[in-house]
Amino acid sequence: MDYAPILQRIAADIQPLIGKGRVADYIPELGKVRATRFGMALVTVTGETHTIGDADERFSIQSISKLFACTLAFQRLGEELWKRVGREPSGNAFNSLVQLEYEQGIPRNPFINAGALVVTDVLCRNLPGADTALVELLRRLSGNDTIAVDERVARSELEHAARNRAMAYFMKSFERLEVPVERIIDVYSRNCAIAMSCTDLARAALFLANGGVVPHSGERILAPSPTKRLSALMLTCGTYDAAGDFVYRVGLPAKSGVGGGIVAVMPGAWAVCVWSPGLDASGNSLVGVQALEWLTTLTGHSIF
Ligand code: DON
User: Fold this and answer.
1) Are 269 and 69 a contacting pair, CB within 8 Å?
2) Does the CB atom of residue 285 touch ligand 1 within 6 A?
3) Which fold has domain 64-192?
4) What number does CATH give the domain 3-60+196-299?
5) Is the distance from the beta carbon of residue 256 to the nearest atom of ligand 1 less than 6 Å?
6) How far apart are the C-alpha atoms of 283 and 121, rounded to whole Å?
7) For a disulfide at 200, which of 137, 142, 153, 159, Cβ 3.0-4.6 Å?
8) Is the pLDDT reported for residue 93 higher than 90?
9) So where are the chain's domains?
10) What is the reported pLDDT for 92?
């Protein structure tokens, strides 16, 4: 399939929506990004790369880091991971605390903040180099050795982490966390503050479209069954309380972040990342969701 004209058409048709939505500013450093940015990169398992707009501009990956942190935890713990964190959509905002009390401090899934804090606890406990493990994984997956934490975003995030701290201490009160809360908050916040481009992120997610193997290096990240399972979790939980609407419109497993990025995976074929910082009410990129809806419509590719 010729993806280049499809990306061009999406970039043209999306113009009236550019700048709509609200740039996240609860982490002040994120609020400094211009709302009019738009980029998209699609990479195929056969080695093609197609990009449009600001596809090579770095942005804050934010909650997209949760997908790769979960990959590391799943590699280490396998099915044991699900004793610590659930696999159901939360139906609540990504930073909500309410369910935690009813459900004895066990978060619904690894892609909401509470779940990602548990995953970070697992990493801190089980990986000797937990501080740098995610950056190293992302460098290997994307083939880009320059990927790094944006220190200004990391600082900003740490200074405004009251809600995440509250969540972590609340889970600690149920004895659900093993390492000190401040260490978990530090590693979690730095992982969210990693900066990557659409091209980097599409490449990083490509192993999920390729049965768990990184196409460019041949490295196996996950066996086929865990790869399927992680993708299934993206489908049901990757876009928070909007996961139902997202799957209805787009039809692909995906993971979003409040930096405005969304990665999505077409099993057996390609991975895509779209970036535009204006968010909808659920914290997903407003333009990004529309662009992905058009991508699956125009290509005729989705998992359904
Ligand atoms: O912890 C936070 O709130 C942010 N670092 C990440 C949240 C996020 O990206 C949720 N995504 N839509």
Assistant:
1) no
2) no
3) Beta-lactamase (3.40.710)
4) 3.40.710.10
5) yes
6) 24
7) 142
8) no
9) 3-60+196-299, 64-192
10) 86
